[in-house]
Hints:
This protein is of the alpha/beta class. It has helices spanning 16-25, 27-30, 39-52, 68-77, 97-109, 118-125, and strands spanning 6-11, 34-37, 57-60, 83-87, 114-115. The chain has one domain (6-131): Rossmann fold. It has six helices and five strands; from the N terminus they run βααβαβαβαβα. The chain has a five-stranded parallel β-sheet with strand order 3-2-1-4-5, with helices on both faces.
Amino acid sequence: MKKKLRIAIVAHDQRKADMVDWTLYNADTLSKHFLICTGTTGGLIKSAFEEKGVNAEILCLNSGPMGGDAEIAAMVVRHEINLAIFLIDDLSPQPHEADILMLLRQCRIHNVPIACNRYSADLMITSTLWDNYDYVPLIPKYENFIRK
């Protein structure tokens, strides 16, 4: 991939090991992009990359419960994120559920692809559309559909 993406990376506590494993599996690809992570997840990825000798540009924001999800949502609104990978723990309640829903909603509204499992993350990170300059994602239309 020629285009350098700004990739948001978030993982709930019970999904952090899976996220670190995913980022290591995709380290070659991810190291060519700018990674924006919530605090704890970013710290774990930095450590894992350093241990494996992977050089990557990683920005760590606040942890999710301390506002990291909201910070990433704001970056989505400002069109500063190209892709989001968010491994969500759907089996445990989250004290910052409102921030999680806000991030997911802003990605949908602003047409930012968001992967919530490894398979969709693999498909998105390897898509040839990133470098296809003939492909322009359509801006979502929020209007009533009237059949004629």
